[in-house]
From TrEMBL:
A GO biological-process term: galactose metabolic process
Galactose-1-phosphate uridyl transferase N-terminal domain residues: 19-228
Annotated GO MF terms: UDP-glucose:hexose-1-phosphate uridylyltransferase activity
Primary subcellular site in the record, as a coarse category: cytoplasm
Organism: Lactococcus fujiensis JCM 16395
Gene (UniProt): galT
Protein name: Galactose-1-phosphate uridylyltransferase
Pathway assignment: Carbohydrate metabolism; galactose metabolism
Length: 493
C-alpha cells in the first residue's frame, strides 16, 4: 500500500470518528502531508483499503522514521501526535458521550472505551504482552499478572530524560492539563489523550481510561484540582456518587498513606472499571452486627487481608457507617498484634482502602483496614510484603493488589525462566535473590519439562497469597480472629 493510500485511509477514520467532516478532507490531508514531511499528493482509491487504525499508524510512522523525521527518543510523542489526527476534540467527545449517556451509561462508556482503543490512548497491543493467569487458593482464584505493557526506555531515552528541562506543567500524570499535551523526555506523550468532564458532589472531576490498563475498562476518576488524596467521608460520598452515574462499574481508592497507598498520593483520584475482582467474589466469613447502624448488613470477608463488607440500599446510612468505621480504625491500637494507630511522634498510621460496587440493587462497600507502621524487624512495613518475598514482590500493595490482582514487575519474565532452568538442573543464570526460594521448591516438588512452567507459576501465586497475608492487620488464625473481634467490639462501643 502506498503512503498516499495510507494517508487517505487515515483521513477516512478521522471522518468516521467525527474528528472532521467531509468538507475538511483536503485541509486535513495537507496537515498530514506536512506532518509526514511530504509536499505532493497522488490520486488514490476513494474507498479505504485499510480500516485498522493501528496498522495505519504503523505504516505512517514507518514512513516517517525511514525518512528521518524522528528517532527513538521522540517515538512515543510522534505516535501520540499522529493518532491525534483521528481523535475528536474534547468538546466533541464530551458531547457524544453525554448524548449516549441519555440512552444508558453503558452505551456512553462503550463508545468512549472503543474510541480510546482505536486511537491508541488505551495501548491494547502493549497490554496484550502481559503474562496473566489465575491461581487457585483457599480464598478462591487470585489473578496474577507480570506487567510487560510499559515499554522499557532505551539508553537514548534515558540520556534525554536526564538532560531534559525540568517543568512543573502538568504537575503530575493525573492532572487535567495532560489532555492533548505533547510530552517530553520526563513526561509521557498525551496528544491523543481525552477526558470526560463530570461532576460529583458539587466538584469537577475528569473520567479517563488508563493507557496501560491492568484490567477490563480500567479507568481513572481524577479531581480537576491537583490536591492530595484523602480517605474520609467525602471519599465515600464520591465513590457512591460515581456508582449512581455508572452503576455497571466498580470503583475504589488507594489508601492515602505511604507504604500502604498507591504510587501517586499527590493527586486526588479513584480507579474504576468493568471487572469483578477476586475479592468481590469472596464470600462473608462471619456476619457481624454494627450496633449503631442496625439497617446495615455487615460481615468480615473471607480474604487474606482484613476486610469489612457493608451492604445497604440506603446510600446515606452506608456512608455514615463507613465513616464511623474509618474514624474508629484511625484511633484503634492492639500492641500485641503490632497494630498501633499513632506513634510516639504523633504520626497517624491507620487508614482504609475502600472499594464500592452495586450488586443486586444494593450498594456494597468493602473497607480494607490498613496500617503503615514499620519496625526494626520489618523496616519496609509491618503489614507490607516481608523481605523473604521481595524477590517476587516488594512494591506497595495498592488498591488493585488488595482486590486480588497481582501486578508483578517485568523483570520476572526472564528471571523466572532462569529459575525454571535451575529447577531442571540445566545451565542457567538465575538471579541469586531467587536461590533460597528455588531450593525450597526443589526440596518439596518434582519438576520436569512438562510441568515446570505451571508449577513455577503456581509457586509465584503462592507467594502473592503470602504478600496479601502479610498486608493483613488481623491474621487469619485464632489470635487474629480474637483481635478482629476486639475491634468489632470497639466499633460497637
Amino acid at each position: 500500500m502506498s503512503i498516499y493510500q495510507s494517508i487517505q485511509d487515515f483521513i477516512y477514520l478521522a471522518i468516521k470518528n467525527g474528528t472532521i467532516e467531509s468538507i475538511d478532507e483536503i485541509y486535513w490531508r495537507n496537515k498530514l502531508l506536512q506532518f509526514l514531511g511530504l509536499n505532493d499528493w497522488q490520486t488514490v482509491n476513494e474507498e479505504g483499503k485499510e480500516q485498522d487504525s493501528l496498522q495505519l499508524m504503523d505504516q505512517l510512522l514507518s514512513f516517517a522514521k525511514k525518512h528521518d523525521l524522528y528517532d527513538s527518543t521522540d517515538e512515543e510523542a510522534m505516535e501520540s501526535a499522529l493518532m491525534d489526527f483521528i481523535t475528536p476534540r474534547p468538546s466533541q467527545i464530551n458531547q457524544t458521550f453525554w448524548n449516549k449517556y441519555q440512552d444508558s451509561p453503558d452505551k456512553a462508556t462503550q463508545y468512549f472505551y472503543q474510541l480510546a482503543k482505536e486511537v491508541n490512548q488505551v495501548k491494547t497491543r502493549d497490554i496484550a504482552r502481559n503474562i496473566a493467569y489465575k491461581h487457585n487458593t483457599k480464598y478462591g482464584p487470585l489473578e496474577i499478572t507480570i506487567n510487560l505493557s510499559k515499554p522499557e526506555k532505551d539508553p537514548k531515552k534515558i540520556a534525554a530524560a536526564k538532560s531534559a528541562e525540568t517543568t512543573n506543567y502538568p504537575a503530575c500524570q493525573l492532572c487535567i492539563e495532560n489532555e492533548g499535551y505533547y510530552g517530553h523526555a520526563n513526561h509521557p506523550a498525551r496528544s491523543n489523550h481525552r477526558i470526560i468532564k463530570c461532576e460529583l458532589n458539587g466538584e469537577k472531576w475528569g473520567f479517563q481510561y488508563s493507557p496501560y490498563a491492568y484490567y477490563n475498562e480500567h479507568s481513572i476518576l481524577l479531581n480537576e484540582i491537583h490536591q492530595p488524596m484523602v480517605i474520609n467521608q467525602r471519599a465515600f460520598e464520591n465513590l457512591l456518587a460515581f456508582l449512581d452515574k455508572f452503576p455497571h462499574y466498580m470503583i475504589g481508592s488507594n489508601a492515602d498513606l505511604p507504604i500502604v497507598g498507591g504510587s501517586i498520593l499527590t493527586h486526588d483520584h479513584y480507579q474504576a472499571g468493568r471487572h469483578e475482582f477476586p475479592m468481590a467474589k469472596a464470600g462473608i466469613r462471619e456476619e457481624i452486627e454494627l450496633k449503631h447502624f442496625p439497617t446495615i448488613q455487615a460481615g468480615i470477608v473471607n480474604w487474606p487481608m482484613s476486610v469489612l463488607r457493608l451492604v445497604s440500599t440506603d446510600r446515606t446510612e452506608l456512608i455514615r457507617a463507613a465513616t464511623a468505621v474509618l474514624k474508629k480504625w484511625k484511633t484503634y491500637s492492639d500492641v500485641s498484634l503490632g497494630i498501633k494507630a499513632v506513634t510516639d511522634d504523633g504520626i497517624l498510621h491507620h487508614t482504609i482502602t475502600p472499594i464500592a460496587r452495586i450488586r443486586d440493587g444494593k450498594y456494597e462497600m468493602d473497607l480494607v483496614l490498613r496500617d503503615n507502621n514499620t519496625s526494626k524487624e520489618f523496616p519496609d512495613g509491618i503489614f507490607h510484603p516481608h523481605k523473604k518475598l521481595h524477590h517476587i514482590k516488594k512494591e506497595n500493595i495498592g488498591l488493585i493488589e488488595v482486590m486480588g490482582l497481582a501486578i508483578l514487575p517485568p523483570r520476572l519474565k526472564t528471571e523466572l525462566r532462569e529459575v525454571e532452568k535451575y529447577l531442571l538442573d540445566e545451565p542457567n543464570q538465575m538471579n541469586k535473590i531467587h536461590l533460597e526460594w528455588a531450593n525450597e521448591l526443589k526440596e518439596n516438588q518434582d519438576f520436569n519439562s512438562d510441568n515446570i512452567e505451571e508449577k513455577v507459576r503456581g509457586a509465584v501465586g503462592d507467594i502473592f497469597l503470602e504478600v496479601l497475608e502479610d498486608a493483613g492487620v488481623f491474621k487469619n488464625d485464632a489470635e487474629g480472629a480474637s483481635g478482629f473481634a476486639h475491634f468489632i467490639a470497639f466499633l460497637n462501643d
